[in-house]
């Protein structure tokens, strides 16, 4: 539910951004020209949450490793609930001040969303066993697809209701050029709806115990680990305090040491670059849909329809693209991540995304591909004491790419020039091919425990074929945990 809300909040703004322009940037001296957000303001409205997301990923990722994911997990949810509601209640004495208030709350909304990335990924990876870990993380991330679908569906249903209630404008001009004043309520309700699923999730989040790996390896509390995991799995664990201490001692090398670089330097470069390149394309596609749809003939141009009809048109197109392309991609990853492996899925996804002529299929292969695997891999590659931090760094690199999509690529497509849109798609195809190449820095992780992948069990260094020779240092009960 956390990831459902994350995606809903990030992408619902796409369905109402044009409506904000018609409401607050309307020129009464030119009644036959619908209002439109200036390019810079449009980019801020749709992209400011990404700045917050990047900041939240770094802050909460670090806190997750220092304090434990459980301790800060509820904070992210409360931030998202409050800021989603406040976004819908944005106020101001002028258009500029209202948009400024909206951007302020959406920044902090993104801050909470950012925390959800490393914390959720770490918690789910440390609770799952090596056979179900990939599908579990992929299933959680697939809720992003459900969130995108609901962003289109909620906007579509609400705009249809508003259109039924308020079919004509109060302006004395042709109704197709009109902006119904009641539409001011529409965008607010769409934004505030995101608070509902977060509220429904809070109780269960607070009941969740800290992961056994954190309690054992970082806190060194074998007794609490056995109690927590025994309660979760309904089996009895034997307390092995001496072996927990031995395990903890084996993993104390400094963060910026040569040993860390030998083990994980290449992996960190790989996860950060691939996520960065992926999000340039992924967020460019999703945030610019409203501008690309008219150029492709999927929706009508603004002068042909009134304001609420434009929301209905845009959200309907977004909904069907998500249903037919985006959503199936996530669940194909869930189904095949064990059989094909993360490495193969990411390579195929980047390669197929390069063919932007197949517009709908790029949404499918983004999600049956790197949009899912770039989230899964950082949750598996790094050791327990750094897992949340380095997932956060990888995710933050992705959001840096997303900002390029929101502020550079989107600007290039705002003028509805078909040639500009084609050029942007060609550039995005090139970034996808770079992502294909950088994938070779990342090893396959399927079929191995987290300790084996990260070297926490005392394994020798992974070689170029990604094989590992395990030594005997391990947690008593670790194999039982992975089995269950």
TrEMBL record:
Its main location: membrane. Residues 451-484 are annotated as: Disordered. It comes from the Eukaryota. Residues 1-447 form the Major facilitator superfamily (MFS) profile domain. Residues 460-484 have a biased composition (Polar residues). It holds the Pfam family Sugar_tr. It is found in: Membrane. Keywords: Membrane, Transmembrane, Transmembrane helix. The keyword Hydrolase does not apply. The chain crosses the membrane at residues 7-25, 45-63, 72-91, 136-165, 185-204, 317-337, 343-368, 389-409, 421-442. It is a multi-pass membrane protein. One of its GO terms (molecular function) is transmembrane transporter activity. One of its GO terms (cellular component) is membrane. PANTHER family: SOLUTE CARRIER FAMILY 22 MEMBER. This is Inorganic phosphate transporter 1-12.
């Amino acid at each position: 539910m956390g990831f459902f809300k994350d995606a809903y909040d990030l992408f619902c703004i796409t369905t109402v951004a044009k409506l904000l322009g018609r409401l607050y940037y309307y020129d009464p001296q030119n009644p036959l020209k619908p209002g439109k957000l200036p390019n810079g303001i449009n980019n801020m409205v749709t992209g400011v949450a990404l700045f917050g997301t990047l900041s939240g990923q770094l802050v909460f990722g670090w806190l997750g490793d220092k304090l434990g994911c459980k301790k800060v997990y509820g904070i992210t949810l409360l931030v998202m609930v409050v800021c989603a509601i406040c976004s819908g209640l944005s106020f101001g004495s002028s258009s500029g001040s209202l948009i400024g208030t909206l951007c302020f709350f959406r920044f902090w909304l993104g801050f909470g969303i950012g925390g959800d990335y490393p914390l959720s990924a770490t918690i789910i990876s440390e609770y799952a066993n090596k056979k179900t870990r990939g599908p579990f993380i992929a299933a959680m991330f697939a809720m992003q697809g459900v969130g995108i679908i609901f962003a289109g569906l909620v906007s579509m249903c609400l705009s249809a209701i508003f259109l039924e209630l308020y079919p004509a404008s109060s302006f004395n001009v042709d109704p197709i050029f009109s902006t119904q004043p009641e539409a001011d309520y529409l965008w607010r309700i769409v934004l505030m709806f995101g608070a509902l699923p977060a509220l429904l999730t809070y109780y269960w989040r607070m009941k969740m115990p800290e992961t056994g790996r954190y309690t054992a390896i970082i806190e060194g509390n074998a007794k609490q680990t056995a109690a927590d995991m025994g309660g979760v799995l309904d089996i009895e664990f034997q307390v092995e305090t001496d072996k927990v201490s031995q395990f903890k001692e084996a993993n104390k090398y400094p963060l910026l040491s040569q040993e860390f670089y030998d083990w994980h330097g290449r992996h960190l470069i790989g996860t950060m670059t691939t996520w960065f390149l992926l999000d340039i394309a992924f967020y460019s596609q999703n945030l610019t849909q409203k501008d690309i749809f008219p150029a492709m003939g999927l929706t009508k141009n603004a002068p042909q329809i009134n304001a609420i009809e434009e929301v209905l048109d845009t959200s309907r197109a977004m909904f069907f693209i998500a249903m037919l392309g985006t959503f199936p991609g996530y669940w194909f990853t869930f189904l095949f991540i064990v059989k094909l492996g993360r490495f193969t899925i990411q390579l195929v996804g980047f390669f197929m995304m390069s063919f932007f002529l197949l517009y709908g299929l790029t949404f499918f292969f983004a999600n049956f591909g790197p949009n899912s695997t770039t989230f899964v891999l950082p949750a598996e590659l790094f050791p327990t004491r750094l897992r949340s931090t380095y997932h956060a760094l990888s995710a933050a690199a992705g959001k840096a790419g997303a900002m390029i999509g929101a502020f550079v690529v989107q600007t290039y497509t705002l003028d509805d020039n078909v040639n500009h849109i084609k050029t942007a798609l060609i550039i995005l195809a090139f970034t996808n091919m770079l992502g294909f190449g950088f994938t070779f820095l990342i090893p396959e992780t399927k079929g191995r425990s987290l300790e084996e992948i990260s070297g926490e069990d005392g394994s020798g260094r992974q070689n170029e074929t990604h094989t590992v020779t395990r030594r005997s240092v391990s947690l008593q009960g670790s194999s039982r945990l992975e089995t269950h």
